[in-house]
Write the structure tokens for this entry.
Amino acid sequence: MNRIIIEPEEIEKGCVVLSGRRFEHIKTVLKSDVGDILKTGELNGKIGTGKIAAIDDKSVTLEIDHSTDAPPPWFDLILAPPRPRVFKRLLAQLTALGMRKLFLVGAKKVEKDFWGATILKEENYRPLLIEGLEQCGATALPEIRISRNLKRFVESQCLGPCRLIAHPGGRTVAPWADTIEKSLPVFAVGPEGGWTDDEVALFEAHGFSRVSLGPRILRTDTALLALIGRYL
């Protein structure tokens, strides 16, 4: 936890009282005491510091000073989701990398059982997104949208000009790619079995350019982190 994320409603008159997981981290991991300064941030707001005003065996009181803009998210992701356990471990990592919006879309090779998975409930995925923010020091909570009809989604979405679909046969993405546009790029990554030819054609008909990570067949989690890492 590199920055303690605080919900806006928790702050009252410039102070916040923390208990539970965040308190345990401050008490046992950071081993902080009264007067210590911690890195903090308001969810979907600014970042700054929290000075410990009081601490006991159950809670800690911080005096908050948030006046700096947090690092903004920089990409959107269209994802034909992998298995729930893979998806679950990806959420914090994608958030830490700078994801703004995640569009979960239906594709021919997506396992049908995924759409009933408990990880799709906000109370289950939200803590993982916050974990990613705590890791990277940002505060913008990613938005997750679900659209099981891929054709309807692609035809109806208003996306930025930089649209990339990961699929074999495209131009190979160079490390530290310098051709990406300054506006928010959107990456489209398929399921474990890849996009079908019809799905690729649908994306390309709506302005997506095909890119490849080379000849190796990668798992969804590996491909995602490798692709996004090339543009950091």
Observations:
- The CA atoms of residues 55 and 61 lie 6 Å apart.
- The chain has two domains: 4-68, 75-229.
